[in-house]
Amino acid sequence: MSEAASTAPAGSARGFFRSVGSLISARVFLVLAQFIALPVIARHLAVEDFAIMAMAMSVVIFGSMLSDAGLGQSLIRSKSEDPAEWSSAFWLLVAVGCGLAALIIAISPVWAWFFDTEELIAVMAALSLIPLCQALAAAPNAEMERREQYSTIAAIQMVTTVASVGLGIGLALAGFGVWALVAQQVALAAVRLAGVALLTRFRPRFYFSLGLLGEHLRFARDAIAVSGITAIQNQSTVIVIGRLLGEGPLGLFAMNQRFVNLPKSGLAGPVSSVVYVRMAKARDEPARVVDIYVAAIRLLSHVMFPVVAVIAAAGPAVFTVVLSEKWRDVATIFAFSVPGMMFEAVTIMCLSALFRAMGRTELLLRFIAEGAVLRILIVLPAAFISLEAVAVSLTIWGVVFVLRGWVYAGRCVALDLGRCLGAVAVPAAVGAAFAALHMLLLSSIEVGNLEEMAIAAIGAPLAVAVAALLNHRMIRHDITRFRA
Q: pLDDT tens digits, residue range 327-369?
């Protein structure tokens, strides 16, 4: 690594929001691009194409979550920037990425047999490039995050978005079916790798010493287990639906997950990345770490809860207009699953950052493992009933999972459940009220799908404004929490 690489700049409230703003701007760009691309792709692909992609990604996502082996986040926490240490981590990650790619290829025939879908073999072979690219990008990306170069990272993400979305649309229009989705995902990883490699100050040396990675490997041990269990937790639902309910319901569920994940990846993800860096710097002050966590989930919930609630209320119109009539049934799945999924998105990503920043990854591991078992126990019986029952079970799981997470966090910091619930109560209540008002209004007047979407477009920002007005003092106070 270049000697010019210095420690991250001192934090400030302005710096925090500028960092978050850079990442969010890139994610918002991605969300908007997805909204432009998804209707085109959804109209030119069959529901079964999305099902095949979901089947393949259930393994590939497992590899992606293991691709940085926990070393990327550990390097961010490192007090030194020893080139030998960082180079050793990089070469270990190269080996991990190659191993994951080979494992995905080896598993593909078994996966094709399990789902009775031969096309999975070729699809998974192509997608095996994703964890390899992510592993190669982990150390360079960690160097950039350590210097809080979020504007540069955001620029890379925007270029990546344009390339991947453009490729996906082009192949969909050309009639390539599921391969449009495959190419889009591979391009996301490959173009991002190229950008990070070009703009990072980190340059690996031809040096490797396992002894230099002792502390990182201890951190990574639990991080790898957490990532693996999280992948099982998330993808078990896909596997159960595909096996018990078939390709049609799985395709609808896969589309639902794409919409559920938009606010999670577009807002909660960037916030948690920056929050983690701030928590890591404040790890010797547990009370301040708690303050950062509560402030983060309050700010997130005031944006996410009201908007998503109104969208769920207008779901049939939204999914019909945006995707086409064949996707209308996704609205019911979305409405039933999104309350729990949003509760989890707002709280758990920042909670994971808290565990890692405090060096208590063993607690995070136990918590995630417990959540994975709980999810399987709740979702599996529901899958024997219907897809709608699975959606309801996910909301039940999300609420229980979050409450249990707060209990676990209380074992390493003084996290009060009442304070956490208070942080999300107002926006949740306002979102529910505006969703009810939307449905009440639509029950009294007859409007078309476009008119209903226009009503929702007015109601969503209005709900955010009302929630912010009701809680403006706490929000203003939360902003000060991000001062150094």
A: 889 999 999 999 998 999 889 888 988 988 888 878 888 888 8
Look over the chain and give the mean of its residue pLDDT values, rounded to a whole number.
85
pLDDT tens-digit map of 193-209:
999 989 888 888 888 77
Tokens of residue 17, six digits: 């929001």
Burial bucket for residue 150 (CB in 10 Å: 0-12, 13-18, 19+): buried
Rounded Cα distance, 466 and 478, in Å: 18
- Rounded Cα gap, residues 41 and 62, in angstroms: 25
The total number of residues shown for the chain amounts to 484
Q: Residues 16, 20, 22, 27: what is their CA dihedral angle, to the nearest 10 degrees?
A: 180
Residue pair 380/241 in contact (Cβ under 8 Å)? The answer is no
Give dist(CA 456, CA 187) in Å, integer: 34
Tokens of 71: 């070393």
Task: Assess contact for 366 and 328: CB atoms under 8 A.
Answer: no
For tokens 């009440």, the residue is 440
Return d(Cα 419, Cα 425) in angstroms, integer: 10
CB neighbours of residue 446 within 10 Å:
7
CA distance 39 to 255: 11
Q: Above pLDDT 70, what percent of the chain?
A: 90
What is the residue whose two structure tokens read 């998974």? 124
- The predicted-structure confidence for 398-423, as pLDDT tens digits, reads as follows 999 999 999 999 998 889 899 999 99
CB neighbours of 15 closer than 8 A, spacing ≥ 6?
Answer: 9, 148
Global pTM?
0.72
Which range has highest mean pLDDT (187-191, 325-329, 367-371)? 187-191
pLDDT at 67: 80
